[in-house]
Structure formats: C-alpha cells, structure tokens
Amino acid sequence: MKHEQASNRGRPRVMTPFPHRVLFLGFGSVAECTLPIFFRHVECPPRNVTVMDFEDRAGKLREWRRKGVTFVRNKVTPENLGSLLGTHVSRGDLVVDLAWNIDAGEILQWCHDHGVLYINTSTEVWDPYAARGTPPTERTLYCRHMGLRQRIATWTEPGPTAVLEHGANPGLISHFTKQGLIDIAEAALAEGTVAGAAAETVRGLLSSRSFAGLARALGVKVIHVSERDTQVTGVPKAVDEFVNTWSIEGFREEGTTTAEMGWGTHERWLPPLAFEHASGPRNQICLARMGMNTWVRSWVPSGPIVGMVIRHGEAFTLSERLTVEEGGTAVYRPTVHYAYCPCDAAIASLTELKGAGYRLQSRLRILADEITSGSDALGALLMGHPFTSWWIGSDLGIDECRRLLPHQNATTMQVAISVVAAVQWMIANPALGVRVPEDLPHDFVLDVARPYLGNFISTRSDWTPLKDLAPAFDGFAPNHFDLSDPWQFKNFLVKEGD
Ligand SMILES: NC(=O)c1ccc[n+]([C@@H]2O[C@H](COP(=O)([O-])OP(=O)(O)OC[C@H]3O[C@@H](n4cnc5c(N)ncnc54)[C@H](O)[C@@H]3O)[C@@H](O)[C@H]2O)c1
Predict the structure, then answer these.
(1) How far is the CA of 332 from the centre of ligand 1 (A)?
(2) Closest Cα to atom 15, ligand 1: which residue?
(3) What band does 131 get if pLDDT is binned at 50, 70 and 90?
(4) pTM of the predicted protein model
(5) CA 423 → CA 14, 20, 167, 449, 468, distances in Å?
(6) Among the atoms of ligand 1, which is closest to the Cα of residue 169?
C-alpha cells in the first residue's frame, strides 16, 4: 500500500494499487456511487474496468467511458454465468457484485474455481419469489447461509478472498458494533460503572478484543440496526410509483418475506408466528410475517422511532459471532435485528404496495438530485448494559454527501464506502477464502469509511422500549408488556392495542 498525504474530506490517506481487471455487476444506485470512490482509493487503470448491467447505463457512465471504462449491456443468468464472467475476468481479477438476484452460491463457486476475488453486499438467489409456499424457515437468509456453508465445506482450499454482505447493513454495522462495545467498556471502566473482579474481566476482554465475551460481560441484551432516513424530495411520489433511496427491487424482496432475528438467550417469549430452525447454529428465529409488516420501537440520536424488522445478514452473522458457548450450549447471545424507518416517500410507497396486494408499482424512482434535505442516520443501538442504551454510527446529511460526491444520496454513500474499504482489505489479503463482515478488522474499515460518514456518533441514552409508553387502550386490550425486563422482544414489538 502506498501512502498519500491526507488531504480534503473524502480523499484517502492510502491508495491501494490493483493493476488487474475489475468487473462491476449491476450499475444501479450503489454502483453509481461506488465506482468513483473506488477510483479514489484504488489505483487501477480505468481501461481495466468493465461495468455490466442489463439496463442501458451507457449514458450514466459517459464520463467514465471517456476515461477508459467499458460498459457491457448484458444480463447474468444461470445459463451464461460462467461464459460471461470468463470473458471479462480471470485469475487475480476482481468481481464487485452490486446486482440483485445473481445466485451468491453459484457466483462464489465460479470465482473460487477461477481464482477471482469477489465481493457483494447481500446474499441473493436467482428467483427469490420461487420460495412461495415453502415454510418460512426455508425462505430465510439463515437457510441461504447454511447452503453456502455446505458448499464451502466441499472445497479443499480457502481460495481467493470473497467478502459477503459488506455494505452499510449488513457490513459497516458489524464494525460499528465492535467499536460500540469498546466505547461502552472504556466508559464503564473510566467511570467505575464496573468495578472489582468484573472490571478486571472487562479489561481482559477489551485488550484481547473478545467481542462476544465483552458483550456478555457488559450485559448487552439487544442490538438494533436502527436507521432513520429523513431524506425528502421536492418531487413527491406519484400514484403507482415506488420511491426510495436505494434498490427498490432489493427492498421489496427482503421486505415482503419473513422477518428474521438473531434470537437472544435472555428472551423468555417467542413472538406470535415464530419459527425456529432445526439444524445449524440455531441462533435465529423467523416469523410467518413479512418484515415490512413487523414494526418495533427503536431509537436514533434524534429521538425514538418505529422501524421494520427487515431481514438482513447481520441478524445471522453478528448474532452468531456474539454467541458465547459453554459445553456446546449457547449461554449468551444478544437479540440482533434491523429496525428500519425508511424515507417518507418509501413509507408511502410501502403502504401503496400493500394496498395493491404487494404487486410492484409500474414506476420506480431512486432519489438523488431531487432530494431537498435530510440525512440517513444508521447505527448500532446496543442495549441492556450499565448505560442502558448506546448508539454508534453515521448520521450523513445530504449536503455533506453532495460535497463528498455530487449526484448521490446519503444512503448509497454509506454502502459505497464500505464496499471500497472491503475491496482495499481484500487486495491486501487476497487468499483468505470466504469472509463475512465480522471477519474484517473493524478499525481498518472504519478508518477508511469515517471521512464519508458525516457525523460519526457514539453516544449513550436512557432510552428503553418501555420509556414514554402510553398504551392507548390500557385496560381494554391485552397487556403485552413485560415490565420486569425491558429488553424482552415483546416490549419492542408494536402490537394491536398499543
Ligand atoms: N448491504 C447494504 O447495506 C446494502 C444497501 C443497499 C443495497 N444493497 C444491495 O446492493 C445491491 C445493489 O443495490 P442498488 O441500490 O444499486 O440496486 P439497483 O436496483 O439500483 O441496481 C441494481 C442494478 O443491477 C442490475 N442487475 C440486476 N440483476 C442483474 C443481472 N442478473 N445481470 C446484470 N445486471 C443486473 C439492475 O439492472 C440494476 O441496474 C442490491 O442487491 C441491494 O439489495 C445492500
């Protein structure tokens, strides 16, 4: 790695040389933001870079094509995956998969067999809607991860590095969580909130960076990926239009399927419609209920929110990595899931989608230049420790985002810089096989990402899901709350009668 002088905001201190070929799959909202940042951080001749999308993205790529980037209009399918990829990349090259619905297992296998580095931001399958009619457990990301593990178990060597699910969430959120655990531990030690033998334990776990043990010793019960997107537009959503700040296809897919949660060992009640897994680490549950219809109370630095339990990879990988086992039994695990309050136009779009029996609107619009104000606050809300709650993450305003890179939005910026940080790490560590965000060094990733994250906040809060609770029909609807333990999932879940 070559060191550059620290300069303006968003300019890297470190450039990573990569003289090989790069294939970007998909040129939607995330890739459009990622490509320029990639060139800021990775020293790669533009003529080595090919972008593929089945939509015509030649216009959007005009500037980059002038510099040497090639655009290929084509669609990756089960039939052509090998031949198409083989035309553009080979041993030592890199695939950046920012498309939706390319089967992660198959593309991973191809990259493994051909010595090609691979990164994606979500674990996709060819046709996610084909799972209709199967039990909720079989429609889960958990199930997809189990499939990947079976595949990887057949390999005789780790092969080229492949980083799965490294966007903002999943992705950065796991690094926020580790930094949050460090911040809580340091504050607890400095303020004497833990003392005596407990303080010694925390000190030891902190210095060895044993994050599962640290989460347990600090008493963390629940981790929300809590997000409030306040970006608004002067061009309102029209009838029969879905408006969002990132992939509408991706959002619809994960929003209209089962809600998934990493399930904490402190939980005393399974929620209604819950299903448990019969095999694997069994660290998750899922619901026979769509994520977009499962709302929970949560908190971001601007105040309390309600958000949707949209399934995301960290509910699996992070909750598994934070599990402490004794004698083969899980004795500690926090509950981990998303609590997503998207931008106002997306909330209106979801309501319309639901009204139309989940049939996708005929027009789709991802907001960029028409955004008039707002920010994306995305962080890890760690709860149940001596400080009650602690939020750590990025609050990136649209103005700051535009200063970093014109024509993008705060949501895609948080994803793009995470992809680029992981790519830099992969180039330096090219033969480690398959990795998930928790495997990457959080300090390296955050170092690269921080200049792009706007306000990087790490702050305590006295918020609990029982704070300010005022059930509208107290005495007339069942009392669903457990006042003896604020951290039970039933206290977060928004239910009938609340
Ligand atoms: N981890 C995270 O934080 C995070 C955040 C946002 C998006 N994502 C994921 O990143 C991906 C990209 O997001 P986006 O907002 O850019 O989506 P998008 O819908 O704006 O763009 C995706 C692009 O991929 C193209 N595409 C899809 N399938 C293809 C195929 N088989 N062959 C060629 N091109 C194909 C589409 O035409 C589209 O232009 C999605 O899978 C999304 O779920 C992850």
Answers:
(1) 35
(2) 247
(3) confident
(4) 0.96
(5) 13, 13, 11, 12, 44
(6) 3
How many angstroms is it from 232 CA to the middle of ligand 1? 22
List all residues whose CB is within 6 A of at least one atom of ligand 1: 25-31, 52-55, 75-76, 98-102, 121-122, 124, 167-171, 246-247, 249-250, 366, 415
Ligand 1: distance of its center to the CA of 418 in Å? 15
Residue 390 contacts residue 458 (beta carbons within 8 Å): yes
100: CA distance to ligand 1 center in Å? 4
* Residue 415 vs residue 12, higher pLDDT: 415
CA nearest to 91, candidates 65, 112, 67: 112
Q: What are phi and psi of 102, to 5 degrees?
A: -95, 125
Residue 116's contacts (CB-CB under 8 Å, 6 or more residues apart) are 85, 89, 90, 91, 92, 93, 94, 95, 110, 160
5 confidence band (pLDDT: 50, 70, 90): very low
All domains of the chain in start order, with CATH: 2-163 (3.40.50.720), 172-409+454-492 (3.30.360.30)
Question: Measured in angstroms, how far is the CA atom of residue 30 from the centroid of ligand 1?
Answer: 7
Nearest CA to ligand 1 atom 43: 250
If you measure from the C-alpha of residue 296 to the centroid of ligand 1, how many angstroms do you get, rounded to a whole number?
27
Tell me the best of 29, 30, 413 to mutate to test the pocket of ligand 1, counting ligand atoms within 8 Å of each CB and taking the most: 30
Q: Among 26-40, 177-191, 482-496, whose mean pLDDT is lowest? A: 482-496
pLDDT in tens, 245-291: 999 999 999 999 999 999 999 999 999 999 999 999 999 999 999 99
Q: Ligand 1, closest atom to CA 30?
A: 16
Per-residue three-class SS string for 120-153: ECCCCCCCHHHHCCCCHHHHCHHHHHHHHHHHHH
Q: Are 321 and 200 in contact (CB under 8 A)?
A: no
Residues near 243 by beta carbon (within 8 Å), at least 6 away in sequence: 233, 237, 343, 345, 346, 348, 349, 365, 366, 367
Predicted local distance difference test score (pLDDT) of residue 12: 62
Degrees (nearest 5) of the Cα angle 78, 80, 86? 125
Query: Residue 8: what pLDDT?
Result: 44
What are the structure tokens assigned to 454, written together? 């706007």
Between CA 91 and CA 34 the distance in angstroms is 23
- The single residue listed with the structure tokens 């390319």 is 102
- Atom of ligand 1 at shortest distance to CA of 77? 31
Supply the residue whose CA is at minimum distance from atom 32 of ligand 1: 75
Which residue is listed with tokens 């490509």?
35
Beta strands in 18-106 (DSSP E): 22-25, 42-43, 49-53, 70-73, 94-97
Residue 10, pLDDT > 60, answer no
What amino acid is encoded at 444 in this protein? F
